[in-house]
Write a structure and sequence with these properties.
The protein has four helices and ten strands. The chain has a six-stranded antiparallel sheet with strand order 1-8-5-10-3-2. Strands 4-9-6-7 form a four-stranded antiparallel sheet, with no helix packed on it. It has one domain (18-196): Sandwich (Jelly Rolls), CATH 2.60.120.620. With 204 residues, it is an alpha+beta fold. It binds fe (ii) ion (FE2). Fe (ii) ion (FE2) binds at residues 117, 119, 185, 200. The site of fe (ii) ion (FE2) has 4 residues, from loops.
């Protein structure tokens, strides 16, 4: 038989947007200084909220823009990026806009990790890296295809985006990742000797 034409259609691809900023250093320094002024010990004791029962929140600190004014520019960029995504993808936003749902800070000391969780019921979620020491833990996205849970691993599952069960994103300081809020993720143990600082946020 002779193939006249052929095609591959990815029916339900999962988008992950990455933005790398060139002018991040002054913003990150200001955020770091404002968090430092709040006190790292006090950050760990702050009120914790529950978005998803499986989320440990052991490392989440809920701050406000009044306390850490320099995160405002990051939050505003995230919301504008989400609205740009909605326009580019032709999502129906005629009667509403994508807005900020919530935000929080991670100040993850050496030895800590973040377990499997998602950010439902948001629309888009994001993270921005302020301090990202080498080996302090990269974001790992996990496939929710139920076949991954009980089927044999399809080779080459580790390299093929269609069959691999999880993907690690090696982001840097000054990087923002935006992903669907339903997409489960985790972060392995911080194996560095420094704190990893990032800001997480949801849009709805
Ligand atoms: Fe998360």
């Amino acid at each position: 038989m002779k193939v006249e034409d052929q095609a591959l259609t990815l029916c339900f691809p999962t988008p992950i947007w990455r933005l790398d900023f060139s002018d991040y250093q002054s913003v990150n320094t200001a955020i770091r200084d404002e968090l430092e002024a709040l006190g790292w010990d006090k950050l760990g004791e702050r009120q914790r909220a529950i978005i998803h029962p499986s989320h440990t929140f052991s490392e989440d600190s809920f701050v406000t823009v009044d306390e850490v004014p320099s995160i405002q520019v990051v939050l505003e960029f995230f919301v504008s990026a989400c609205n740009a995504i909605a326009r580019e993808r032709n999502w129906d936003t005629r009667e509403t806009q994508v807005t900020l749902q919530n935000y929080w800070v991670h100040a993850t000391p050496p030895g800590e990790l973040t377990q499997y969780h998602d950010h439902k019921p948001g629309l888009l979620s994001g993270v921005y890296y302020v301090d990202k020491p080498e080996n302090s833990g990269d974001l790992i996205f996990i496939d929710v295809n139920p076949y991954q849970a009980y089927g044999p691993r399809l080779l080459p599952g580790e390299t093929d985006p269609i069959t691999r069960p999880e993907i690690t994103f090696k982001a840097d300081e000054g990087t923002m990742l935006i992903f669907p809020a339903w997409l489960p993720h985790k972060v392995p143990r911080n194996s560095s000797d420094r704190r990893r600082i990032s800001i997480s946020f949801n849009a709805i």
